[in-house]
Every structure is written in structure tokens, then in C-alpha cells.
Amino acid sequence: MPDVLDSGAFSEGLSYADYRADWHRQVQDAPSSGADASARRLYHYLRYNWKRQAHVHEAYVPSETLRRALDAVEAPQAWGVLTEPWCGDSAFLLPVIAEAAALSDQVSLRILLRDENLNLMDQYLTNGSRSIPKLVAFSGAGEELFTWGPRPAPAARRFAELQEEHEDKSALIGTFLEHYEDGGWQAADAELAEQLRSVVEVPSSVAEE
């Protein structure tokens, strides 16, 4: 697997396996009975998101369109993702990114925790917000190829609709996550394939599927 991230902005990133291992360790390390509300809330997010990402890994079958787009990648690409395990969007979407990256020997993947890398995160804002997950893909020469995230277009539209309906943020997020639980995370597959087709030459018969 190429190491083109070693000299780039994501050089300090974790492998996906290490990211999940650290996350799992946190899930196993439940807060004490005397922990403050913020610690208990964080643990709640970590635990439920662990279950969500596990479900995606079990359920996800990469589309043939995405597989063939990845087959067309003939030169090294480095994918870096800014994220956090407490993020609900990321719990559903990062597994799709990771599964896609694993399909190509030309693609390497590194994960950076957003809150420890705000200077980098601020280079990839979404409408002025530090929204995650944010995928940034580079060529072997360090050229930025494409970015993707923090949400597939259908999820972004659903979130905007709910913002009009809910004043309470907790109620908004709870309802919004139902979009992913109903399979909305699968839209990431098609969008990743589209991003790849924008930077690699895929045979026309494949691109048109």
C-alpha cells in the first residue's frame, strides 16, 4: 500500500484499524459513577456510534460502480479523513470510506481527530463550520484531488428540512439520525464513485452504469 501521506498534512494520522482500536478502548472504559455529565454524555455517543459503525460494516456491500471506479485508480492516492468517534454522521459514513479505500491497493487511508487538528480542519470548512467527516484525497505527488463530506446530498437536504421544523438541537439530531438508520448512509457510495470518476479515467461503459 502506498505511503504518500507520510510527508503530507495527514502524516500524523492513524490507520483505520488503530482509530477503531482506540475507539473500542474508550467504549470499554465506562465512566465512573462520579463522572460529570459531559463525560457521561460523551460515553453515550461513543457507545451508540460504535454500534452504528459496526452495523454499517456488516450491512454495506460496495456497488459495482464504486468497485470499478476504484479498479481504474492506477496511481497512488492518499485519503485523509478529519473526524471524531462521537460524531453521528461519521459513525455511518466513515465505514463506507474505509471499505472503499480497502478495495484498492493504490489507496491509503489515514484518520485525524478533528479536535486535535483544528488548524488543518479550518482549511476544509463547510459553510464556515468544522463539520465532519471530511475526506481529502491527494495524488502521490501531494496534489489535492478532491474533497468529500461531511454528508451525502440527500442527508444534507434532510438536515436542512429538519432545521426548519425543530428549534431544539437534540430533537433535531435524534430525528436526523433516523435518516441514516433507514439506510441513508448508502448514498455515500455513489458520491464517492462520482468523485473518483472526476479524477480517474473510467471506461465509458462503466461510468454510465
Distance between the termini: 28 Å
Number of beta-strand segments: 4
Poorly predicted parts: none
H/E element sequence? HHHEHEHEEHHHH
Q: Could you tell me the strand content as a percent range?
A: 5-15%
| Estimated radius of gyration | 17 Å
Helix content estimate = 40-55%
Please tell me what the overall shape is. globular
Number of domains: 1
CATH homologous superfamily caption: Glutaredoxin
CATH architecture: 3-Layer(aba) Sandwich
For the biggest sheet, the summary is: 4 strands, mixed
Brief summary:
The protein is α+β, with helices and mostly antiparallel strands and 209 residues long. It contains 9 helices and 4 strands.
